Amino acid sequence: MYHPFYSNKTYLKYYLIVWAIIAVLNAIVEYKAYGLDIQFALIDSFVFNFIFAVLGFGLWYTIRYGVFGKLSFASSIVNYIVSATVLVGLLLFISNNLLALFISNENYITFLDKSLLFRLISGVLFFTLLVLFYYLVVYYRNIQEKTKNENKLNLLIKEAELKSLKTQINPHFLFNSLNSINALTISDTEKAQQMIFKLSEFLRYSVRSHKSEFNTLSEEIENVEKYLDIEVVRFGDKLKFTKIIEKECADIKVPFLILQPLIENAVKYSIGQTGEESLISLSCILDSKSCVITINNNYNKLYTTDTGEGVGLNNIKKRLELIYGTNFKMDINSDNKTFNIKITLPLKTNTEI
Q1: Which of 347, 350, 352, 348 shows the shortest CA–CA distance to 289?
Q2: To bridge 344 with a disulfide, which of 8, 112, 324, 329 should be the other Cys (CB 3.0-4.6 Å)?
Q3: 3-state secondary structure 88-103
Q4: 124 and 196 within one domain
Q5: Do residues 13 and 145 share a domain?
């Protein structure tokens, strides 16, 4: 771990400010309590504390050795006793000799000799405070590193969950499509061939776009239309699709493959279960903060054999929770004739993706 003053200049700034404050207070004490001339008190205090500040800078390496060297408790105590003895000894030796050299006043020299105990106690106190300060820096850095690692881990977990959910969508659709192709190979080989071709186009899109978590809404709609082309081969003119998309919606970013499972669900609960004519509509509107996507389809409750929401809708909910947290809405409403899904998503800019 690098010295905190190298990696964070703010630490160094506060370190120097604190020592300057200590030097001023020390000078006031010497002036008031010991009757020292103000100029001598200022020189004495600033020289003494400047030397301690410089020596204290190097104390970090002792702390780092004790912490990261994984010393035992007893070894750490010995380490700090030796460090304190060396540091305070150097402080007294250097400061006393320098001050005696700079100031030749007899009263001050007398004060310098008498203040040895005071300086010794101050040195030990400041040493202890410096050790505590460096330990706080180490603790704070460890918390930051732990938080950073946890965020990375959560991001990796989130990405893994998203990939898992996306891989569940394609096989679900593929299973249904292959069943339909299997049936068509017996009843209508030409339609089976058309369906295989359109299915390959759809899967090519999925593979190409799988690396990105977001696509534009226009790309997702194109993909939906490829999916519906496949289903039209199976159901013919009974399957009808309409869309009302505001112009501003085309370029907004939405999660990859978010619409196809919803449209698949609409097909399933309309023409897929009843065999009757199906009308599916897709709309998108924008307000200042969100995008509202609505999908409607007709259905007959009497033909509904599955009252659950199915793999597709559950996956959509989980993916939206992972991507947006609580900043989205997914409302599902139905009566005896219509099934409605409305999704409200926060607007995403390119810089946020």
Answers
A1: 347
A2: 329
A3: HHHHHHHHHHHHHHHC
A4: no
A5: yes
pTM greater than 0.90:
no
How far is Cα 310 from Cα 168, in angstroms, rounded to an integer?
Answer: 12
The rounded distance, in Å, linking the Cα atoms of 253 and 249 is 9
**In the structure encoding, which two tokens stand for residue 6, read together?**
């190298």
Q: Domain total for the chain?
A: 2
Whether residue 346 sits in one domain with residue 284: yes
Half-sphere exposure of 345 (CA within 13 A, CB side): 27
Which DSSP symbol is given to 259?
S
pLDDT, tens digit only, all 353 positions of the chain: 677 777 778 888 888 898 999 999 989 988 888 888 899 999 999 999 999 988 888 888 877 766 655 667 787 788 788 888 988 999 899 998 888 888 888 888 888 888 888 889 988 998 888 888 888 888 888 888 888 878 776 766 666 565 655 555 556 667 777 887 888 888 888 888 888 888 888 777 766 655 567 889 999 998 889 888 888 877 888 889 999 999 889 999 998 878 888 888 888 878 766 667 889 999 999 987 899 999 999 877 665 555 445 556 777 888 888 888 888 999 998 887 888 999 999 986 444 55
Helix%, strand%, coil% for the chain, nearest 5: 70, 15, 15
Q: What is the span of the domain harbouring residue 337?
A: 189-352
What single string gives the DSSP state of each residue in 282-319?
A: EEEEE-SSEEEEEEEEE--GGG----S-HHHHHHHHHH
Residue position matching structure tokens 């946020």: 352
Helix (H) or strand (E) segment spanning residue 179: helix 116-187
Q: Which residues of 191-216 are buried (b: 16+ CB within 10 A; e: fewer)?
A: bbebbbebbeebeebbeebeeebbbe
Phi, psi of 111 (to 5 degrees): -60, -40
Residue type for 147, please? Answer: T
Q: In whole angstroms, how far apart are CA 240 and each of 106, 178, 276, 278, 281?
A: 106, 22, 11, 6, 8
Kindly report the backbone phi and psi dihedral angles of residue 342, in degrees, each rounded to the nearest multiple of 5, phi listed first.
-125, 125
Question: Where does a domain end: 149, 172, 207?
Answer: 149
Residue 315 CB-density burial (10 A; 0-12 exposed, 13-18 middle, 19+ buried) = buried
